[in-house]
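Local shape tokens

___
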Amino acid sequence: MTVAITEEDVDKTVVDRDGTEMGTVVDVHHGAAHVSADDETVEEMQTRLPQGGIDEDTYAVHDESIAEITDDEIVLDLGE
């Protein structure tokens, strides 16, 4: 099942399946959540996810990389 990202997801916390915080959604553009995070996390996510960032401090997360969206969080499916 694909989960759709919307503008309502801005400011949500992005976590992995273990609940480790990965960043915060700062924008939704062309069906992707743009997530702000520290440099190390951005670099890791840009290598683990098939999308790129909009600058060096963000990474793009598309619907197919999301396991679940709750009221407060977006849970990534990192294929672990």
